[in-house]
TrEMBL record:
This is Pyridine nucleotide-disulfide oxidoreductase. InterPro entries: FAD/NAD-bd_sf. It comes from Rathayibacter tanaceti.
């Protein structure tokens, strides 16, 4: 049985893995070099953006000309589906159910 077969993973009660992790695709030389240089390091979310820098929660600034932020979850009204584990068929089904329930709860409060 293939390592990444969403139906089997779900049947066994395991959380779905990201779609890309199932492709067998490796790191490109470009991405490996960027990682080596430290430009692909995951950092805590910044608190402010400057013209050419980001400001961390501790006040430190880091020079930056690009910010990758695929999901924004700070605003409770924003519900993103179809990213990360929710990209798989099984994950999308679960994420859809969870999001619908969260939206109903929020609308009931308001």
């Amino acid at each position: 049985m293939p390592r990444c077969f969403a139906a089997y993973e779900a049947a066994e009660g395991r959380p779905p893995v990201g779609v890309v992790s199932c492709t067998g695709l490796g790191w490109t030389s470009y991405a490996l070099e960027a990682r080596r240089r430290g430009v692909l390091e995951r950092r805590p979310l910044f608190t402010a953006l400057g013209r050419r820098h980001v400001v961390g929660a501790d006040g430190t600034t880091t020079s930056s000309d690009t910010v990758l932020r695929p999901q924004a979850r700070a605003d409770g009204r924003v519900h993103l589906i179809g990213y990360g584990a929710s990209q798989s068929t099984v994950g999308a089904d679960r994420a859809g159910r969870a999001t619908a329930a969260a939206l109903i709860r929020r609308l009931d409060r308001d």
